[in-house]
Design a protein that fits this description.
Radius of gyration: 19 Å
Strand content: 25-35%
Largest sheet: 6 strands, antiparallel
Distance between the termini: 74 Å
Shape: elongated
Number of helices: 4
Number of strands: 8
Order of helices and strands: HHEEEHEEEEEH
Strand order of the largest sheet: 3-2-1-8-7-4
């Protein structure tokens, strides 16, 4: 089982690392990661959603494979198995498997779905849904996917920080106090 796991995620980890180093924007990170995870030999499909803490929603921004699970927007306050599982993923910042039944996790007849948080420190940027057909995703693989998710979150944080630091826009705020009784 361990050799199968290493074979399955070794190439993925190398490709994800290369993508994160090469990508220059958040959109590019999201697109390339979703494409790599969903179209590689390791997993069947993937989608990636951005987390909006203000609205309490995950909005799917990238998909690889049309049959990939997920509405365009998942309301984390909503009911249903997907909303509950994604909410747990965001709250715990740990990979969560959808639909546990008798030790197996299924979304279709023969599919397993793991929601991987894309987080850096205490900030969650999104969720990557990894879908596998016919093979289960065990605890060891979830740990590795969680590590990949943290790397993606760190790269998103770095691109957003870089954009903030290198921006050419300067915002000047002025205040004029005219009430003489104030002092």
């Amino acid at each position: 089982a361990l050799y199968r796991l290493l074979d399955r995620v070794n190439g993925l980890a190398n490709d994800v690392t290369e993508t994160l180093v090469r990508a220059e924007t958040r959109t590019e990170i999201e697109q390339l990661i979703t494409e790599r995870v969903g179209s590689g030999s390791e997993y069947s499909a993937a989608w990636l959603g951005r987390y909006d803490a203000t609205e309490g929603q995950i909005t799917v921004t990238e998909r690889e494979d049309d049959r990939a699970l997920g509405a365009e927007t998942i309301d984390l306050d909503g009911d249903g198995q997907v909303a509950e599982t994604v909410r747990e993923t965001v709250e715990t910042q740990e990979p969560t498997v959808l639909g546990e039944e008798n030790g197996t996790y299924e979304i279709e007849d023969d599919e397993t779905c793991v929601f991987v948080p894309l987080s850096y420190r205490s900030t969650t940027y999104g969720v990557l849904a990894v879908i596998e057909r016919e093979a289960s995703i065990d605890d060891r693989e979830r740990v590795l996917l969680g590590s990949i998710g943290r790397s993606i979150g760190m790269a998103i944080n770095a691109t957003l920080t870089k954009r903030t630091i290198t921006t050419d826009t300067v915002l000047t705020i002025g205040a004029d106090l005219s009430d003489e009784d104030l002092f």
